[in-house]
Amino acid sequence: MIRFYNGKVITMNNGIEPEDIEVWTDGAKIAFVGKPDEKKLNETEFEREYDLNGNLLMPSFKNAHTHSAMTFLRSYADDMPLQDWLFKQIFPMEAKLNGEYVYWLTKLAILEYLSTGCTAAFDMYFELDDYVKACTESGFRSVLCGAVSGDKSNAERLESNYLKFTGKDPLISYMLGFHAEYTCDFELLKAVGELAQKYKAPVATHNSETAKEVRECVEKYGKTPTVLFNELGIYNYGGAGFHCVHMSDEDLAIFKEKGVYAVHCPGSNVKLASGIAPIVKMQDIGINIGLGTDGPASNNCLDMFREMFLMTGLQKIAQNDAAACPADKVLYAATAGSAKAMGLSDCDIIAEGKQADLTVIDLNRPNMQPLNNIGKNIVYSGSKENVKLTMCAGKILYENGGFAIGEKPEIIYAKANEIINTLKEQ
Q1: How far are the Cα atoms of 54, 92, 307, 343, 424 from residue 76, in angstroms, in the given order?
Q2: Which of 59, 120, 211, 258 could be a cystine partner for 141, CB 3.0 to 4.6 Å?
């Protein structure tokens, strides 16, 4: 049992107002939330009592769209349009990867996630056995998103991975998915829809990231990617669309009807000049929103604080309204909204019985003072420098700059540099 006391708590169960309560964790779960009496305190044995010293405990961030192992391409191919960046630079380098490389590059990403208060990634990549090994060894949570592309034969691999990784480990889950409409032929898309029906399962994919993607889909099929996916049954059980920048009213109506989450990636969308997603419009009609960074080759960081500020700032510009996309909706998207988009309904808020996925935010830093509104401080002035502790499934993996994931950071950094240097020479 670990006791967090003498501080503020934002549970995300009812807005972003902090409460003067305690949180106790027992194993992987949250065991108590509230104000204990003396009798309860005296009867409870604690492995550790963590004095918050007036700081804030809140649900950890969940990164609802990323490609973790792409850390090796951070700042490798920048200042390019998406299609050239992807097909001329990224895909050729990715083709050189192997499982060992993915293992170490994922470990590097996990260090960054933890140091920014993030305990879960909705990851779309390959070499899944090695990716899972990196996550489970580190104690980090992940939802694997199927990343198939190409022709119909790859549907067998998608189904095989779905059966293999579903329930494999308490930290690992799997959602059916494919890369994007423009990298899959029609028969593969049709097969994904059939798998969704077979398993009554949600599906996640890149959707309407660029105007070019949507335009070419309309030229090919006479309809947008969202309409195409819906007609094929891909969204019959919900799921997630990554980016969702160029969405028609019909597209949005489908998301609302089918309960599909729109996962916003403002940092990547800005850097690749993909556009500004219509988040306010989505929120107004009741579409659920998650928040992600996209991969570290297109962002280039894995920092949910930056994504939160960009999410609200870009919407205010797009709407010409300083009141648009307020802080409470942004913080919810980065925590509970992202968790729900990932199917992690037991990791969304601080409540008894939920997973103990938590972070401690240092309020005793210049950027967090004065404490006029702690929740808004996190969104508008907070940064990763404020993260003091990150706990996943009841285990403290990051605290005061130190990591507890196995290898020392220096070893992981050396491996990552060795890998990229080797790949450049091939």
Answers
A1: 42, 13, 21, 32, 10
A2: 120
pLDDT tens profile 237-273? 999 999 999 999 999 999 999 999 999 999 999 999 9
Domains identified in the chain, total number: 2
Token pair 């993915």: residue: 102
Domain assignment of residue 364, given as a range? 2-59+355-403
Q: How many CB atoms lie within 10 A of CB 76?
A: 17
Is 99 in the same domain as 24?
no
* Residue 412 forms part of a structural domain: no
**Domain co-membership, 255 together with 394:** no
Instruction: Describe the chain by its helix, strand, coil percentages, rounded to 5.
Output: 45, 20, 35
Q: What are phi and psi of 128, to 5 degrees?
A: -65, -35
Token couple for 51: 């004095």
pLDDT band at 144 (very low <50, low <70, confident <90, very high): very high
- For 50, other C-beta atoms within 10 Å of its C-beta total 22
Tell if the pTM clears 0.85, that is, is over it. yes
pLDDT tens digits, 71-99:
999 999 899 887 888 899 998 999 999 99
Is 414 inside any structural domain? no
